[in-house]
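Progress report, Aim 2. The chain analyzed during this reporting quarter is listed below.
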Amino acid sequence: MSIAIDSLHFSYGSQPVLNGVSLTVEQGEFVALVGMNGCGKSTLLRLVAGLLTPSSGSIMLDGDPLRSLSRRQVARRMAVLHQTLPPVPGLTVRQLVRQGGYAHRGPLGMLWEASTSETDEALALTGVAHLADRVLDTLSGGERQRVRLALAVAQNTRVLLLDEPAAHLDVRHQLEVLTLVRELRQARDLTVVSVLHELDHAARFAERVVALREGVVWADGDPREVMTPALLAEVFGVAGRVVVDELHGTPRCLPDHALSDHSLSDLSMGG
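Predicted structure tokens for the chain:
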């Protein structure tokens, strides 16, 4: 399942967010979207998921225009992991994860017992089978994120879109969730596009980093090539260093200080 984005524009009212984003993601890639808050990372993800409509430009899913597909057709191809779930009092983990089969079976199909094996597999793959009968409201942040992943896995798609999957988690649970995403990708040959806040996580877990600035793709490539002091300055507005992690062989970013408005203005003008 490839994703082809061409000259994508989007605005919230009179405020432009994306100004001509073009990007292609091939089957099996793990792509991390990075950039400052408000640069359009999550907006781009929602556009790809079909949750927003672009002002202009196109999105193709494996050769088919996204706009030509129904919501259920999109859900059969892509699963979206949102940062939060709407509160549903009394809903158990198993009941939630079973909803992942809606796109393939429809509302009546959700009543079939045949969905039990798919639900159990998703619970097992994400390590939350022991939580199956727990009410969602009783879970910790790390447990809830694993359950959201189980819901996405139960949807049985080839593409996984993640909106900051490690947000609001402590360091241990951040690593657990991102390691799990990587394992699921390998086990199911998934295409993963994820908004990530931590640059070190993007460099370690993704094989390709796409940095957004001012509504356009500012840098795109292997983390070992993209993660540079220039990127820290131009995209994130900080002066810093980039070193190689001796254990993983991936870049680590060491921000030193915020750049002044004058310095940022010079960078914008190419100075």
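Residues 34 and 211 are 5 Å apart (CA to CA). The mean pLDDT is 90. These observations will guide the mutagenesis work planned for the next reporting period.
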